[in-house]
Amino acid sequence: TQWVYFFGWHRAIFVFFLQLLSLLAFICEEVVSECTLCGGLYFFEFVSCSAFLLSLLLLIVYCTPVYDRVDTGKVKSSDFYITLGTGCVFLLASIIFVSTHFGTAAEITAIVFGFIASLMFLFDFVVMLCEKRQEGQLRKPENTARAEALTEPLNA
């Protein structure tokens, strides 16, 4: 498919694991039956579900003919910022949930999956940032050579 061509197999597997971790964090959080300070639990629930759904939306765009109909630069840019935002908010939700959890096994498991998922989202962001910089460096020599040719006198 187009998505596998765009990202490669290693990226496809990585995004699949991001999906799985987000879903597992959400499921473990849903198993929690009692809470004393429920604000952290509810925020974690919202963030883990949102992370799963946003990532799923991007995967659907990449895997369907919609990808061919939209500007690929905008899709990559959206993916870049969604991954950064999701990683940061997921990490924040995990920290808040740690400070308000009751100590049940389901809560601790959800927290572990939350931290792993948030760190993986942030790692994915760093990988995309490095790829973006490499693309910029590959284009840079091309632009400087052309700029040098433009600064040469015409009558030389």
From TrEMBL:
Localization, UniProt: Membrane
UniProt keyword list: Membrane, Signal, Transmembrane, Transmembrane helix
InterPro entries tied to this protein: Marvel, MARVEL-CKLF_proteins
Domain annotation MARVEL: ranges: 6-133
Signal peptide extent: 1-33
Residue ranges crossing the lipid bilayer per the database entry: 43-67, 79-102, 108-130
UniProt keyword annotation of Hydrolase present: no
GO CC annotation terms, alphabetical: early endosome membrane; plasma membrane; recycling endosome membrane
GO biological process, one term: endocytic recycling
Main location: membrane
Membrane topology: Multi-pass membrane protein
Protein name as annotated: CKLF-like MARVEL transmembrane domain containing 6
Organism: Nannospalax galili (Northern Israeli blind subterranean mole rat)
Gene: Cmtm6
